[in-house]
Amino acid sequence: MSKINMINPIVEMDGDEMTRIIWKQIKEELLCPYISLNTEYYDLGLPNRDRTDDNVTVEAALAVKKYGVGVKCATITPNLSRVKEYNLKKMYKSPNGTLRAILDGTVFRAPIQVNGIDALVPGWKKPITIARHAYGDIYRDVEMYIDRPGKAELVFTDEAGNEKRELINEFKKNGVVLGMHNLDDSIRSFARSCFNYALDRHEDIWFSSKDTISKLYDGRFRDIFEEVFTSEYSELFSEKGIAYFYTLIDDAVARVIRSNGGFIWACKNYDGDVMSDMTATAFGSLAMMTSVLVSPDGNYEYEAAHGTVTRHYYRYLKGEETSTNPTATIFAWSGALRKRGQLDGNAELVRFADRLEKAVIDTIEAGYMTGDLAAISTLENTVKLNTEAFIRKIADKL
Ligand code: NAP
Ligand code: MG
Fold first, then answer.
1. 8 Å CB contact between 307 and 74
2. Protein residues with C-beta less than 5 angstroms from the ion ligand 2
């Protein structure tokens, strides 16, 4: 059998721990036998980030900008204990934060639904996609501990030296303050990515924030969405018979739970972080959630929504059996391959991506699955497989 050729490369970003192990096996058993895999490889594993003073992450992000499509393995975001564990030179920033800061854009997270894994919310018959703004707010904030009485102020100095000031608080005792920002351009491109994605998916889009309390900051988000929608999208939406609707975040939460799914929920950065974990879990498993970062200039970076599954990795290192679910990581690859195929007019590659996803879903629906799914499956006679056996089973199906 001749292998499928790739015209342009995909930027491949390797990662850490259990997902690094899975990454290698996916390539060996599910991709390389069928595709002449053309990737530009960047090792974002923590030891190599340390070796390169984290330059490798920046280089990978620039490569995604150059080639338009990337696929990323989960990576460790170092904290104090990781600095000790890996003997790091410093506590590097989150690789995803670095990628998002360079690429800008919106992260779309959608559940992979299969028969036999029911959503915990009975009404959720169709997927709910979270569109998470990937720039600013607390992810690029500055914080200060106030250790004595005094006045905290927000000060803006323009280029001519003029100041605007707002009192934050008169501190009588110790406390904390934080400053954060966002940019009109970034919010506008967030709105456009969301509306484009809604047109693409043929689904309604909701946007929520807390503009009743944060009148200026969240109000700015609401106004820009409204402005972009009215001037650029309202006719296109009417033609497709889909809707845009804005509501308060608390109202949105209540409506989402009562809904049947089948829409996109646009969230600010922090809301999207939290709500995507909530919807992923409620749809069955964190390991069944896909994630793609879409930048305003049309670059795509695919990954799984979960982390490096550290607890399983420590068991793996001790030689114990693990049953880590590779589904979202496989879908990161299939998503990237499909997009590469679409951009390059490579129909064979698109077809392969479809078949790979179907092989995964068919395997699970035939009762073969990892422990996280076996624990919640409504199918009778499920077979719980370890990580390698599950991937081999998918390979058989493929
Ligand atoms: P995690 O890796 O997502 O795992 C949390 C728990 O969720 C696991 O212990 C496991 O539960 C379950 N789980 C997640 N993915 C699974 C899978 N594929 N198959 C089966 N079970 C799965 O989150 P974490 O433990 O909080 O973080 C670990 C590391 O990942 C951290 O260093 C963090 O910085 C990093 N992280 C990276 C990303 C990213 O690169 N996008 C995102 C989040 C976290 P049980 O143990 O109960 O089986
Ligand atoms: Mg999160």
1. yes
2. 273
Is the confidence at residue 1, as pLDDT, over 80?
no
Going by C-alpha positions, the residue among 315, 280, 325, 351 that lies closest to residue 121 is 280
Q: Does residue 215 sit in the same domain as residue 254?
A: yes
Task: Give the other-Cβ count within 10 Å of 183's Cβ.
Answer: 12
pLDDT, position 268: 96
What number of residues does the chain have?
Answer: 398
Which residue, 305, 264, 303, is CA-closest to 286? 305
**pLDDT beyond 90 at 264:** yes
Q: Strands 69-72 and 244-248, how do they pair?
A: unpaired
d(CA 288, ligand 2 centre) in Å: 15
Q: What share of the chain is helix, strand, coil (3-state, %, to 5)?
A: 45, 20, 35
Atom of ligand 1 nearest to the CA of 372: 20
Q: How far is the CA of 165 from the centre of ligand 2 (A)?
A: 34
Please say whether the beta carbons of 85 and 17 come within 8 A: no
Are 168 and 177 in contact, with CB atoms under 8 Å apart?
Answer: yes
- Ligand 2 centre and the CA of 251: distance in Å? 22
CA distances from 97 to 66, 92, 105 (A): 19, 11, 12
- Establish whether residue 77 lines the binding site of ligand 1, counting it when its CB lies within 6 angstroms of any ligand atom: yes
pTM: 0.87
For residue range 38-66, list pLDDT tens digits in order.
999 999 999 999 999 999 999 999 999 99
Ligand 1 contacts CB of residue 310 (under 6 A) = yes
In this model, does residue 196 exceed pLDDT 90?
no
Sign of CA dihedral 254, 256, 257, 260: positive
Place of tokens 């879990």: 281
The CATH number assigned to the domain holding 98 equals: 3.40.718.10
Kindly report the backbone phi and psi dihedral angles of residue 293, in degrees, each rounded to the nearest multiple of 5, phi listed first.
-95, 120
How far does the centroid of ligand 2 lie from the alpha carbon of residue 21, in Å? 22
Q: In whole angstroms, what is the distance from residue 27 CA to residue 15 CA?
A: 14
Q: What is the number of structural domains in the chain?
A: 3
Contact of 328 with 304, CB cutoff 8 Å: yes
Ligand 1 touching residue 268 (CB < 6 A): no
Domain that holds residue 256: 118-140+181-283
> For ligand 1, atom 16, which residue shows the shortest CA distance?
287
Residues 123 and 260 grouped into a single domain: yes
Tokens read off for 266: 């646009």
Asked if residue 286 has pLDDT above 90, the reply is no
